[in-house]
Amino acid sequence: MKFDEIQIRVRYGETDQMGVVYHGNYVLYLEMGRIEWLRNLGISYKKMEENGIMLPVISLNINYKKSASYDDLIYVKTELKKMPTAKIEFAYEITNEIGEILSTASTTLVFIDKVTNKPIRAPKYLIEAIEA
Question: What are the pLDDT digits (tens) for 94-116?
Fold first, then answer.
C-alpha cells in the first residue's frame, strides 16, 4: 500500500532525565507521520475536519526497540495497511540515521461525522487519492 517517510530532529524538550526520547513523544511522531501521509496524497487533515470529518485513534500499539536521544535525526515511515472503510489502519517504523529500527507501531482510526459523532465511510476523495 501507499507509504510516506518524514524526518524529525529530536528536540531537547522531547527527552527525559536520562537524555532519551520520552516514550509518550512517539505518539506525536506517529501523528506527524499520518498528517504528512495525508498531505502527500493532496489531503489536508485540517480541511477534512473543517468539512465535518474527524479521525479519532481507537487503537494504538508501539514496540520500543532502541532509544533516540536529543539532536538525533529520526525517520518515521507511515504505511497504509489496507484500503480504508469506516476505519483506516497504519503501520509505522521509526529508524535512526544509520537505519536501526527504534520502534514499530500500528494505529487504527475511525472516520466519524463531527456533528453526530457516528462512524461514517471513508470519504470518496481519499479512496480516489489512494487509488491514483
Answer: 999 999 999 999 999 999 999 99
